[in-house]
Write a structure and sequence with these properties.
Layout lengths: L3 E2 L8 E2 L9 H9 L23 E5 L3 E7 L8 E6 L2 E8 L18 E8 L10 E5 L2 E7 L20
Antiparallel strand pairs: 1-2, 3-4, 4-9, 5-6, 6-7, 8-9
């Protein structure tokens, strides 16, 4: 067994080449037994995958204003920042990764961590003084009402009755 090198973090054992060019059935058996079916489940190896966190946003316009929503599980209110500069809304935050013990073995590692920042250009007519941002059960909701002068107004239509024939 002196020709087997075990890599860290759950990688498959690698067999060092020997000086013999003959077929070794025991080497083939060791290679087959080292196959890890859980390793094949991961879409990308952890080392090759870019670990970044970029939440998706829903932006909706209503009669009263605009609603921005994003799922931000695991982000604390203190690690979230909503800023408004002119007509530019910026939402940023940070989700910390869990502490990894070197003795643990991950079969798949798909959750993303890190900092993110998203900026949105707001249309004219938004009442920025009445912006409301709330974080409830991991869902960020930002409400931006429209100013009354840009909200649609219903205009009554009169009919003029002319002479009947």
């Amino acid at each position: 067994m002196s020709n087997v090198v075990v890599k860290k973090n759950g990688d498959k054992p690698a067999i060092l080449p020997t000086s013999e060019a003959t077929w070794d059935p025991w080497r083939t058996m060791r290679a087959l037994l080292s196959w890890d079916p859980f390793r094949e489940m991961a879409p990308f190896p952890v080392e090759e995958r870019a670990l970044s966190f970029a939440p998706a946003f829903d932006v909706k316009e209503t009669k009263e204003g605009y609603i921005f929503k994003a799922d931000l599980p695991g982000i604390k209110e203190s690690e979230l920042e909503v800023t408004l500069t002119g007509n530019r809304l910026t939402i940023g935050g940070k989700r910390e990764s869990e502490k990894e013990d070197k003795g643990e073995r991950y079969y798949t590692y798909e959750r993303n961590y890190g900092s993110f920042s998203r900026s949105f250009t707001l249309p004219e007519g938004v009442d920025t003084d009445k912006l409301i941002a709330s974080l409830d059960q991991g869902v960020l909701t930002v409400n931006l009402p429209k100013r009354p002068e840009v909200m649609p107004k219903k205009i009554a239509v009169r009919t003029e009755q002319g002479p009947k024939h």
